[in-house]
# Entry
Amino acid sequence: MLNDRWSLVLEAGYRHISTAEIKKPNYGIDSIGGNVGFGFFF
# Structure
């Protein structure tokens, strides 16, 4: 909380999407990301 009405929201994430052994070698796809947001309470 920044004060009585505003908050700061931070989020980070990691995702791996596999190829389910359809193709060899199974490298898949990796991603890293994040979000930043503000919340207001009324």
Summary: The chain has one domain: 6-40. The chain has a mean pLDDT of 92.
